[in-house]
Amino acid sequence: MKNNRVAVIAAGGSGSRMGASLPKQYIKIGGEPIIIHTLRQFTACEFDRILVLTPIDYVKYTTELLKEYKISGATVISGGKTRNDTILKAIDFLREQGELDESTILLTHDSVRPFVTKRIIEENLEVCASLGPCTTAIPATDTIVMGGAQVEEIFDRSKMQQVQTPQTFKALRFEEIYNSLTQEQKELATDCTRLFTLAGEKVYTVLGDVANIKLTYQSDIAFAEGYVKWQRGKTESDK
Amino acid sequence: MKNNRVAVIAAGGSGSRMGASLPKQYIKIGGEPIIIHTLRQFTACEFDRILVLTPIDYVKYTTELLKEYKISGATVISGGKTRNDTILKAIDFLREQGELDESTILLTHDSVRPFVTKRIIEENLEVCASLGPCTTAIPATDTIVMGGAQVEEIFDRSKMQQVQTPQTFKALRFEEIYNSLTQEQKELATDCTRLFTLAGEKVYTVLGDVANIKLTYQSDIAFAEGYVKWQRGKTESDK
Known about the structure:
The structure is a homodimer of 239-residue chains.
Chain A: E1 5-10, E2 28-29, E3 32-33, H1 34-43, E4 49-54, H2 59-68, E5 74-78, H3 83-96, E6 105-110, H4 118-130, E7 134-139, E8 144-147, E9 151-154, E10 160-170, H5 171-180, H6 183-188, H7 192-198, E11 204-207, H8 218-238
Parallel strand pairs in A: 1-4, 1-6, 4-5, 7-11
Antiparallel strand pairs in A: 2-3, 6-10, 7-10, 8-9
């Protein structure tokens, strides 16, 4: 049986860390909103459904934006307060539409990681279908330490990885685990990786990309402008 | 007694990870070599000596570059094979010049982290003088996990930090610890933080900056172009 593949683009950010009035997923880089860059990577892949989950006040705005930038095949609905609430909302929507079964794979992604690649998305889908829940990660680029004002522990960098998205898993298994957690565990399991680990399941890794950063700060937007320009120059010279 | 403050700019990289023929510290961003951007941050601070340590074949080239970009007050000498060898070479040079004593503080920095700020440099010098050896670090921006193809352990992100440079310490104490290590320990202590920790010393942290990244990959250079452009625009609008 072919897996039912659903992309869940979490676009619930309010942009407060950027000091912007518009949520950061709508800030333009290279002339296009960040969320549009992100969605172009997904419409280039084979999904049965692409869901975009935004704050309720931005559902209409986002739908119009998709139309303006000619992104077809994505549905905008309202998300929840936390990442997990948003995933549960996506699952509820699929259930209502009669599109949810044991085979349904959710590939969840941050809307503000526009430099995800088709290769990363496809490897997530393959690893999830053949092995189990997976997360995108890259070998740590910096030395990682634990501590506050003082260093308490230094880790062997060769074993450390920085987690990115996508994170990919079976929808019904996610719901089952989530419902079995205590309130305290639910608050801890803010990351899908942690949620599956809490249930004792193995989580696999898919190699991400150093450029697949989460655009969080104003400086990230500046970095991203340079990257978009470089990518476009590269595409031109490949022609 | 006033501490003797020495900046040690490690510029030994060969650039192989970038696939560039020129070592990456010499690649231009915003029209100027990366190492020049870096040095401008240091000449803006109060140092008794600024040492730039490059591969032996690049000493003359770098000296001429500094002249071309009107960077005065920095001395270029040849570095060693490893970061620690380079620091020892800097210490030997200071000893020869009669500039080394118990008060000498070395502030070591990667030449390919051009977005270090005056604030970060000055805090390093203050923390080292008042508390002890310190490293620049930022709260982890991504979830950190340990593992390879499978996730083995997930850490509490709020306690994790990503190490940057500068790293700052007393020169003679560094030498003393290094000489006391076994060959195996020397190979492990590639990071000054780890070296001091191995000797049982406390290492303090100074808050870095998300933009203080190490330019390692071609995509980092593209990011940096955007950042330089944004910084310049900001400076213009501040006038």
